[in-house]
Design goal:
alpha/beta; Aspartate Aminotransferase, domain 2; 2 domains; 433 residues; 39% helix; Aspartate Aminotransferase, domain 1; 14 helices
């Protein structure tokens, strides 16, 4: 496989961009080697700077649920751009998008559009602190909620620990406002809220974890979070940046029938353009300026191009049968890869939620960060490169999710499963690491 042009681009990039990339996982540090530079995409495929064609199973980390350059989205973007790219003023389209979000997610009575999932989480937690008059936040080990300072803390084992900065530049005092608990451990949540509940403004959780690889918690865990936060006066914040409009039109909260106080969204609601949103109960959201005293602003929030792409995407997803089709695609891929692993004698665990999948190179089961981190990352790296050589682009990290889209056909799924089978046989028969 020729990657010369990508290699040259990476050399140039490293001279002007820290690490040569604008988001760390793109650098391929987790799998070794240099990254591919993508030139274009269409449907389920991408082409790199050397002209190599790949079946894309990353889909821009989730937003492209309709596939690359979906005609309805491209046309919506074109029409919006012809009318102006940004106004810093209200538009009718942003009202329509907000109406669609509120109609889809019963927990969201009011919603504010922003520019990223990180911004949505940061703003939602500020709002939670203002509403409750408390300062501390509970998050879970392995849960990623963007790169705001308070969310970049290492997870402690066992019961809640005071936050320790997970990145230089994060003040220790600020990180100490975040308590970290094991994902899925309801007993730890109960003890923490019973002893320190009066300090805790909110519990934030991915209803299906996607950033330690895919981990689906028991629904009793999510229901327990709802009950415990209500009893303690803390807010329950669902980070549905990944799961919103991917698992269900109404998000994981509608699928699991749980009503959070606040919800953070991103990715799909922008149809591939930068976007974020947070919303929830009216009495909480009304605290935002200019209705209330909590300040948050953004020049490009609700910009017409991202809103147009989001509207086109949500309208396409609202058609009958769409989520049944997506579920079937996820099932076919997961069952096929799992069967291939069994036939190859590979000790792996495969977790799936809809069109989110992760193949962990560990015997499993994988239920939390502690079990996920037992994965053989060297073996995943070897698997990644074998799949890339076979023309399949996977997440360049063991601890990320594989994403499928409506553009993935049955023949695409066959290609994915067959390529995985060959790669797994080579890895496990040779004992390669």
């Amino acid at each position: 496989m020729n990657l010369e042009n990508s290699g040259r681009l990476f050399e140039r990039a490293q001279r002007v961009i820290p690490g040569g990339v604008n988001s760390p996982v793109r650098a391929f540090r987790s799998v070794g080697g240099d990254p591919i530079f993508v030139a274009r995409g269409a449907g389920s495929r991408i082409w790199d700077a050397d002209g190599n064609e790949f079946l894309d199973c990353v889909c821009s980390w989730g937003p492209l649920i309709l596939g690359h350059a979906a005609p309805v989205v491209v046309e919506a973007i074109r029409q919006a751009a012809e009318g102006g790219t940004s106004f810093g003023a209200p538009t009718s389209a942003e009202v329509e998008l907000a109406e669609m979000i509120c109609a889809a997610l019963p927990s969201v009575e009011l919603v504010r559009l922003v520019n990223s999932g990180t911004e949505a989480v940061m703003s939602a937690l500020r709002l939670a602190r203002a509403f409750t008059g408390r300062e501390k936040i509970v998050k879970f080990e392995g849960g990623y909620h963007g790169h705001a300072d308070g969310m970049l803390v290492k997870g402690g084992s066992g019961m809640a620990t005071l936050g320790v900065p997970d990145s230089p530049g994060v003040p220790a005092g600020y990180a100490a406002l975040t308590l970290t608990l094991p994902y899925g451990d309801l007993a730890a949540v109960k003890e923490t809220l019973s002893t320190r509940g009066e300090e805790i403004a909110a519990v934030i959780v991915e209803p299906v974890a996607g950033n330690m690889g895919v981990v689906v918690p028991p629904v009793q865990f999510l229901r327990g979070l709802r009950e415990l936060t209500q009893a303690s006066g803390s807010l329950l914040v669902f980070d549905e940046v990944i799961t919103g409009f991917r698992l269900h039109y109404g998000g994981a909260q509608s699928l699991y029938k749980i009503t959070p106080d606040l919800t953070c969204l991103g990715k799909i609601i922008g149809g591939g353009l930068p976007v974020g949103a947070y919303g929830g109960r009216a009495e909480i959201m009304q605290m935002l300026a200019p209705a209330g005293p909590v300040y948050q602003a953004g020049t490009l929030s609700g910009n017409p191009i991202a809103v147009a792409a989001g509207l086109a995407t949500l309208k396409a997803l609202s058609r009958p049968g769409i989520y049944e089709e997506l579920e079937e695609k996820g099932r076919i891929a997961a069952e096929g890869i799992a069967a291939a692993a069994r036939q190859a004698g590979c000790p792996v665990a495969l977790n799936r939620a809809g069109t989110l999948l992760t193949l962990f190179f560990t015997e499993g089961p994988v239920r939390d960060w502690e079990s996920a981190r037992k994965s053989d990352t060297k073996k995943y790296a070897a698997f990644f490169w074998k799949m890339l050589e076979a023309g399949v682009y996977l997440p360049p990290s063991q601890f990320e999710a594989l994403f499928l889209s409506l553009a993935h056909s049955q023949s695409d799924l066959d290609i994915l499963v067959k390529a995985a089978g060959r790669a797994l046989r080579q890895l496990c028969s040779s004992g390669q690491t």
